[in-house]
User: What shape does this take?
Amino acid sequence: MLHTVNKSPFESSSLKTCLSFAKSGSDVLLIEDGVYGGLSGSAHTSWVAEALGDVRVYALEPDLKARGLSGDRLIPGIEAVGYDGFVELACANDKIQNWL
Amino acid sequence: MKFSVMVSEGPYTHQASDSAYQFIRAALAAGHEIFRIFFYHDGVNNGTRLTTPPQDDRHIVNRWSELATEHELDLVLCVAAAQRRGIVDPDEAKRNGKDGDNIAPGFRISGLGQLIEAGIESDRLLVFGD
Assistant: This one.
């Protein structure tokens, strides 16, 4: 299953809720302000990093760039992908949950 | 693969219209089919042709209309959401005694059944909102 999260963890609990519901082996894609949840060195980094063993986490690169960020600011293990990668994730997972 | 997309946020609000547009462009570029784009709640504001953004800003409404023409997309506005927000096609304008319509080219007004059908007919349904 693919989960997308579009809110910063500084603004909303949706990433935390998503990671608590996501089953092992799920994909989680951070988009829009959700990309802030993938940053290393933030107040939220530790619990996001803890989830990385169970789920794969991706961040949408154009949304990182739009916020002056880049893939090297991400927690190790989180992969930056483009919209083509978003489409591939949507194809690879038979169900999609968009957390709003 | 067959995709449908629901947009539930207005243009120029946060980012949902842009994210949905970019995703759809990427899906079409990869050879996938877009069965329908359903605009619900404030998302119906994506379909008024009276929208006039500054010239140096992206024109979100025209961008949808152009994409629909280019790829023969089905852009549907929820009728109840549209009526609440003053978005009407010629038929709805006449039925409700309005002095004009404002639906943008390439859009049509219909009901929630179109969203249900999109969910049934498509392999994947994505929601972009706020």
